[in-house]
Design a protein that fits this description.
Layout (H helix, E strand, L loop, with lengths): L2 H19 L2 E2 L6 E4 L5 E6 L9 E6 L7 E9 L7 E25 L7 E2 L6 E15 L4 E11 L3 E12 L21
Antiparallel strand pairs: 1-3, 2-5, 3-4, 4-10, 5-9, 6-7, 6-8, 6-9, 6-10
């Protein structure tokens, strides 16, 4: 092979690598990275992995505590949703999720004991999966202050979100509820 062709091949490969690297960009506010160990994760927009064509949002484990969790999330004012039932819906794709991932939503109220919450832990996404539609439905109490929603990545792996919607839905769509925690025995078995 002629040296000129080798140089052109190297330049073409380098250009393709640069284009792929540029396909990831930072997320704008109000999207945020939070969780138990947010420094173990990275968030952004991926223009290569997308179903909408606009780029997907992602969270991925990068290093640190492998048993911890991070969340790609945002929080909005609840004013226009008070007294209504809402659904947070997205298409989700995963790669090498070793513990679990899932959508979540929380409604912050003035009395914290009545704050609705659901985190999809009873419907976990694990491993590597193709795009799938997932949702969380909650009622927004009259004293709601804020709505927080996003996706959890617990452990290693990467999760992409695309085609996101937050919408008011009718009362015939069921609300998601956390499964009750098993109660502890009242007496020991000796």
């Amino acid at each position: 092979m002629k040296p000129g062709y080798i140089i052109l091949s190297v330049l073409a490969a380098t250009s393709l690598y640069a284009l792929a690297a540029e396909s990831v960009e930072k997320l704008a506010a109000p999207w945020d990275l939070a969780g138990k160990t947010p420094k173990s994760y990275q968030i952004g927009i991926d223009h290569n992995q997308t179903i909408s064509g606009k780029g997907s949002k992602f969270i991925r484990y990068v290093s640190g505590d492998e048993s911890s969790w991070g969340t790609l999330m945002q929080m909005i004012a609840a004013d226009q949703y008070r007294g209504k039932r809402i659904r947070f819906q997205a298409r989700i794709k995963t790669k090498d999720v070793d513990n679990w991932a899932g959508l979540w939503m929380r409604i912050d109220t003035t009395s914290r004991e009545d704050s609705p919450f659901y985190n999809s832990q009873d419907k976990p996404i694990k491993g590597t999966t193709d795009w799938q539609l997932r949702s969380v439905v909650l009622d927004v109490p009259a004293d709601a202050k804020a709505i927080a929603f996003g996706v959890i990545d617990e452990g290693k792996g990467q999760v992409w979100l695309d085609d996101l919607q937050l919408e008011i839905v009718s009362a015939d769509i069921p609300v998601d509820k956390m499964k009750p925690v098993k109660s502890l025995p009242t007496k020991p078995v000796l």
